[in-house]
Task: structure prediction
Amino acid sequence: MISREFLYENVRNRVLDMIDTGLLYPGEKVPSLRRMSEQLGVSISTVMKAYVELERTGHLETKPQSGHYVSGSAKAAVPSPPAFSTASEPMAVDLSGLYTSFMRAMTNPDILPFGAAVPSDELLPSRELSRLAKKIGDENPQLVHSYGYAEGEPALRQQIALRMLDAGVSVDPDDIIITCGATEAINLALRAVTRPGDTVVVESPCWFGYLLMIESMGLKALEIPTDAERGPNLEALAEAMARFDVKAAVLQPNFGNPLGGLYPEETRRELCKLLGRSGVAIIEDDIYGELSYEGKRPKSLMAHDRYGMVMHVNAYSKTLSPGSRVGWIIPGRLHRDILRLKISSTLVTARLPQLVIARFLAEGRDIRCLRKLRTAIRSQTATYSAHIARYFPEGTVISRPLGGYVLWVGLDPATDGQKLYKDALRNRIGIVPGMMYSSQERYTNFIRINCGHPWSGRIQEGLKTLGALAQEATG
Result:
């Protein structure tokens, strides 16, 4: 006969395993007494005893009339990838060859989508937006097929200005310029403040799209070591700025790709002061800002800007409609320069997607969609993380994102990331090799995995296969 003590320990260990593998995050509700009782085939009193013990040890906390939650101080056993400590020399970038291969794989529907950082269509309001597009098109076909405003639709800019209040920024709709996604906005910002040969600060690791823009403009990337919990190393940044003539910095303070971290408030203040007083333009890419696992939207760097050097960039590509390509920039004092560059390049952004999203926002439909998306990606990211810990080689390190839907996965230092990328493609699995996140020979044993697709048998088998390939790719 199994003793009651053994049963109680079984429940306790089950909860600890769920925390350690990332299946439960700090602040997340654990299964109810009844549900855990049914899952493990034990009495409710046994589960209650285990939960009380876990509360005593600081792993759980109780919320009156709500249930038991993972304590905010509970730590997972899966470590985060380390950051290097010093900045390096500004470097020219050469990623275009690898990027071409990646883009082909990303657009192939037969490839398992661990590569592109986009959510599954079933998590987005695609049908609602399509019905709305038809309705608006039927109401006024001449309107939707005309050029529209270079700055963007007034109705959309008004809705964006209202939502910027949640980011701690009060802005007039006329201060906003609509762009063809965040990519065009960042391009315009860089073109406005740099010339070929100039140096641009980026996080390290940073989204490879920045590096491709820097490459295409003949600029140099200056990588600053960045930690998921602390943000960029400010000492390394100050030292680098004393040595090099930096013109701009492209940063992701809120749940950036690939680390998923969140700059502390003190880092934000000091960063804006350090760069602002030196006259360095700050291009803030806040495209993941609405995807906090806690549901609270973090403030923009603009909220800490006392020098007028922050340009805020965002888009609806990660939250509502990737294909609509509706983004925006708040360029501050450079509004006239950015608008001139916008007119000289794309002239205007397609009118119908703007009108559709403007009405969608005006009717408040985005609030429910965002709530659904946050809940889904938090759960999915935890599930992916737990299975990576299960299937990948011993010693694998996994990031602990606070928002967004990507994981930064570090393998044995001897792992050949490019070989793993090619082997995965041959098995119809798409990933992003870590070397794309640096202008230098860094992160060769890292990969980034998109968790934006709901868990399924196909996803599970893909991670299992990828784990086996990772073992084989170790030298």
